[in-house]
Records
---
Amino acid sequence: MVEGRAEVKRKAGLRLWLSAGWLGALVLVALLAPLLAPNDPLAQDLFAGRLPPFWVSGADAAYPLGTDSLGRCVLSRIIFGSRLALTVALTAGVITCIIGAGLGLLAGFWRGWVDVVVSRFIDIWMAFPPVLFSILLIAVIGPGVFSIILAIVVIDWTRFARVVRAEAMAQGAMDYVASARVAGRGRMGIMLREVLPNVLPIVLVLLTLEMGIAVIVEAILSFVNLSISTDDPTWGGMISEGRSSIHQAWWVLVFPLVTLFLTVLSFSQLGEGLKDRFDPVLR
């Protein structure tokens, strides 16, 4: 039994560090993009269109991962595309977490009419199809980074609210909450000093998962040309372009697709690793 728990902890730790390592490296790449990118991501050279990666015959060393149909450097566009992906993931994830977790905590701990109002609002909001709602929202207010972040926040706050509400209700029934009430603490003080710290682990897990979802949503919107300008480097836009030329230049599709997959997987595994790390049974 002890050996089984040790093996679970070892795998959880490995998963946590691998995912954190990829995301940490991606953050550094995004911050140092002007220094790391071998070329201007917007520069076009029609005479160098669809050059293969460096290990394929006919490659140009100036373009390590090849070029697209307009002669733009694939590696440089992936590097600069990470800036938008991480900006959307961090900003949308944090704002969504604050709004959804705050409402869920209030509803789950205060109960009564607060719970009724928040729960009904969640039910009504979740009746809208999320993808169609996001596309409609961006079509109305126009494309852009702000529109993408707003669409994600508007759609996904219910995910945090539902989970945190249920966890806050469970924590509110614990003995330590009853002891705090007997000691004469106010409801707001109990919620912030007693319940909130015990809800934070699950909030942290949800936050990492939401960041991965935000990256996917941004890529989907870029894929259908509802993100930023089509000339600016985005992973979804590169995937959309590469799909039309998969037989002539497979690298235009494969490299941003692999980067997107590893990023979303890392966010997901980071959440699972944090969940295992904070699991009181494993601790």
---
Amino acid sequence: MPDTNPDAGSTGHGGQLPREQLVAHTAPAGLKRFGIIVVIAAVVIAAAGIAWRQWHSHETASWTDDQAVPTVQLIKLPKGAKGGGLNLPGDVQAFTSAPIYAQVSGYVKKWYVDIGTPVKKGQLLAELDVPDIAGQTAAARANLVNAQAEQGLSAATATRWKALFAQGAVSRQDLDTKTADLASKNAAVAAARANLFSLSSQEGFRRLVAPFDGVVTSRAVDVGALVTVGTGTGATPLFTVGDQSRMRIYVRVPQNYASYIHPGMTVDFTVPQFPGRTFTATLVANAGAVAAGSGTVLVQFGIDNKDGSLQPGAYADVKFPLPGNANGVRLPATALMFRDEGMQVATVDGTSHVKLKTVSIQRDQGATVDIAGGLSPQDRIIDNPPDALRDGDQVRVAGQ
């Protein structure tokens, strides 16, 4: 049976094709080189990615560490602080002032001066009508005349009895009786004379006169008004006379500044009615004691007022002079830290570490405070310290 396999005749050699007829699968030229380049590029990209990640991680850690150290701003303290002043309220008063009260009761008959009137010593201010005292004075004068008459009769009787006793006509007892009666009449005359003098003096009090040269600063009388004796609480003086040629300025100085008061010191002050004008007063007296209620020392300054510019009762803004170290260290209030340990201030030492210092405030002026103790001008003080700041923390100073 003939072979029907179509491939059988084509092989011719036992069914195998010739080698030159086999299909060739050789790689294209340069393919191997391209593959190597791709692999190298992949390795480079992978290495670069890993290196970038590591660098970025290092930068993040550095940034985090950097942010953990806070940056602070220091306060620039003035060096060589000059002496300042402490503004205190002052009370201007006349150097000599006298309220005049009624020393006898009566009605105002007439008044002669009004407020603002210059007066001289002994000048009549007002007259009072005191009819009761006038009647009592007349009666006292009559009593004195009567006592003097009885005294004269007793003296004549005692003289006659002395003569009779010398002649042996009367006894010693009778003479002693007449002598004692004369002594009693002498005492009665003395009492009547003293009573008359007292009433006469009171009658003289119906005339109100100026005690010294000055100006009438108040008047509280009118014609027909009843005035009574009294100088107690609530009593109103009929007149007030003040010597305004020299004035006193009373100032209450806080206790912690009392040591800066010294003899001969001067202060400058202003009054509202003369804006821009400065007056100078000299220390006159120092109370030398602290008032328990206010914790202040009362001091008195004097100033001539010949031109009459200053007026009694005026308010004065007194600038009390202070030396350069009187206020301690002055800081803005933003530097203070309120802690359980008390008022504290954060400072920076030479190694950029925080040192918290407890301080005491001498004077609070709102925006600034004067520190009495706990700080020195050489301290590097942090402004607006963070609330989380603790003693020993490391900080970075802005600008360094």
